[in-house]
What we know:
This protein is an alpha+beta fold. It is built from four helices and seven strands; from the N terminus they run βββααββαβαβ. The protein folds into two domains: about 5-55, Single Sheet (N-terminal domain of TfIIb), CATH 2.20.25.90; about 85-135, no CATH class. The protein has helices at about 45-50, 50-55, 75-95, 110-125; strands at about 5-10, 20-25, 25-35, 65-70, 70-75, 100-105, 130. Strand 6 (about 100-105), helix 4 (about 110-125) and strand 7 form a beta-alpha-beta unit.
Amino acid sequence: MDFQSVLTTCPYCAVGCNLVFEVLDGKIIGTLPSKTGPTNEGSLCIKGWNVHEFVQHKDRLLSPTIRQNGVAREVSWDAALDHAAAELRRIKDTYGPDSVVFTGSARCINEETYVFQKFARAVFGHNHIDHCARL
């Protein structure tokens, strides 16, 4: 048996809590709060305590997919991003910049949120931005 303790940052929100994954034979079996984490100081919220469950969930997508003719097929990241960009461009050109809603995620760090709102405003020409900043 190979046991490891892996220090990481919780992906659930922008607080940046440190946690330790307990890993046995390559599988995460539990989560513990990091006692040295400067933001959480040895504590975790309920989402942090259970973060290991979604990381390894059997239904979690591990690569991008594009739905064509009702069937989702796996594609490369480049193909998925090209498809998303083309669809956003098509929607904006057809229906105008106010036809898309930009909603941020509480899982994003401040820098990601800044880039997100900058994209919505400067690239898409859209000022209607929302954010889901609740835990």
